[in-house]
Amino acid sequence: MNDAVKKHIMRGLEKGVRADGRKLIEMRDISIETGASKNAEGSARVKIGDSEVIAGVKLAVESPFGDTSDQGNLMVNAELLPLSSSRFEVGPPSIEGILLARVIDRGIREAHAIDVKKLCIKQGDKVWSVSVDICTINDDGNLLDASALAAMAAIKDAVYPEYDMETNSVNYSKKTTKKLPLAKEPVQVTVHKIGTHLLIDPLPEEQELAEAQLTIATLANGEICALQKTGKAPFSLVEIEKMLSVSGTQSAELRKLL
Amino acid sequence: MSAIVHKRGAYTARLDGRKNDQMRPIEAKVGVIKNADGSAYFKIGGTAAYAAVYGPRELHPKFMQNPKTGILRCYYNMMPFSGAGERVRPGGNRRSKELSHVITQSIEPVVDLTPYPNAVVDVFIELTETDAGSRCAGICAASMALAHAGIEMKDMPAAIAVGKIGDQVVVDLTGDEEHFEGGATDIAVSVLPLTGDITLLQMDGEITAQELVKALAMAQEAAKKIYKIQTKALKDHYKSEARQ
User: Fold this and answer.
1) pLDDT tens digit string along B71-95?
2) Number of Cβ atoms within 10 Å of the Cβ of B112
C-alpha cells in the first residue's frame, strides 16, 4: 500500500471517519439468503457490503472416532477461492485461508454450537458427520465475520437427508424436515486495531493496515464462547475490554439477522 | 468373446415435462464479482456456475511464459456442497483437472491473446450447485466473463449437453435423466454459435452415427439460443452501467 493511501486512512481515523464514510464502529449493509445451493443439506449466502460468501452443509453417515464413540463429527472448512480476489492463488490453502477456517471452526465447533451427542445414530458404529464448507465469491474485506455468519445461517438452514439404517444408505435426493441439533448460537465479531484505533468490518485497505485483531464469539446470553487474537500488535487490558463491549453490542445486532 | 447386448427401455416423456429440444430455464448475468476483471453467472436448471477472469497479468513461474502470446488457463471447481450426493473434497481431483483442461481448449480457438506476450488470462469457474451439465454451464459462464473482461474474441462459445435417453434424442439432460434405467447417453458439446463449429465433444454411453449427428445438430440450435441469452446479459449490463 502506498504512503498516501495510508496517510489518508490514518487522518480519517483520527477524525473518526472511514474511507467509505462510516464511523469506526459501524457495519456495512448485510444480507443473508438461505437455500443458496439446492444440493446442500443447508446453505446460505452472506453479503457484507461488496464482500460475498456462500456456506453449505453436507451430511454423511460415518463411523465415530474411537475416543468419542457416542458423538457425531463436525468440521468447518473455508476456501479462499482465487475467483474472489487476485490475491488468492490456486493450490494448497495459504496461511490466511487456514487461519480463516480455524477461527470459524473454533467459533462454531469449540463453542459447541451443535450437540454432537445427538448426531449419534448407534454408539460406536454409526454417527452423522456434519461438514460446513465456506466458499468466498468476492473479497472486499471482513471475510472472517461474513464467513462465520454464513456458516451459522447454513447450519440453521440444514435438514437431514433420509437415512436407511438397514441398508446403511443416505438418500440425498430426499430431505426430511428434521433440523440439526443446535445447542448454542455463537455469533462472531472481529475487532481490528489500527494504531490506537479500534474498528469493525474493515475494507481491504484497512485490513492491511490493521496491526492486530480479536475475533470474539458471543452467545445469545452475552457470554463469550471463543476468542482468537491474530496479528503482531499486543493489546492492553483496557483495549480488550473495549473490544468485548463492541462485540457484545454488534453480535446482538447480527443475531437479529440469523 | 461375448457381445454385450444393451437393451434400452422406452422413454416416452421427459421426467420434468420438457420437449426433447427444450432446455431448462436459463439465468445469465455479468459483472457479478467486483474484484474480477470480468465475471459472469450462468444458471441452467439446477446447475449454477460462476466464472471470474483475472488478467491479462504476468505469468509466474517465468519459464511458462510465451514471448509470442498470452496464454489462457481455465480452472473448473465444484464447491464441496454443490454435488447431488456426498461432499466433494476440496482441492481438486483428476476429474476437475481434466475438465479444466478441456474447457480451456474449448475456449482457446476464439480468444486472441497475441497482444499480451508473457501474460496469462486466468478463468476461475466455480459451481455452486449441480444437476448435470456442469462443464457446459462452466463454459457458458467463462465465455461471458471473458467478453466482460474485454478480451478480444471472434465468437462466444456456448455449451450444452445433448444425448439419448431410452430411444429419444434430447437436449440438456438432468441428473435424473443421466441415470435413467433404460440407458442414457450423455454428450457434452461446446459450439461456436456464429460458425456452428464444435470445440468440446465428450460422450459417455452408446449411440448410432445418425443419432449422434442429429444430437449435434440439436446442440448447434441450442447454442444459438444460449448465445442470444449470453449477449443479452452483456448488453443489459452495459445499459445499466450507462444509466448510472
Assistant:
1) 999 999 999 999 999 999 998 899 9
2) 12
CB-CB under 8 Å, B90 with A79 = yes
Q: How many domains does chain A have?
A: 1
Neighboring chain A residues of B124 at a CB cutoff of 8 Å: 81-83
- Is B35 in Cβ contact with A85 (below 8 Å)? yes
Inspect the interface and report whether the beta carbons of A58 and B50 lie closer than 8 Å: no
Domain assignment of residue B187, given as a range: 26-243
Domains held by chain B: number = 1
Whether the predicted model's global pTM rises above the 0.90 cut? yes
Distance from CA of B237 to the nearest CA of A (A): 17
Residue B161 within any structural domain of the chain: yes
- The helix (run of H) or strand (run of E) holding residue A9 is helix A3-14
Interface check B186 vs A, CB under 8 A: no
Q: Can you give the CATH number for the domain in which A185 is found? A: 3.30.230.70
**Region of residue A32 (left: phi > 0; alpha: psi -120 to 50; beta: else):** beta
Maximum distance among all Cα pairs of chain A, rounded to whole angstroms? 67
pLDDT tens profile A44-98: 999 999 999 999 999 999 999 988 999 999 999 999 999 999 999 998 888 999 9
Domain around A38: 16-257
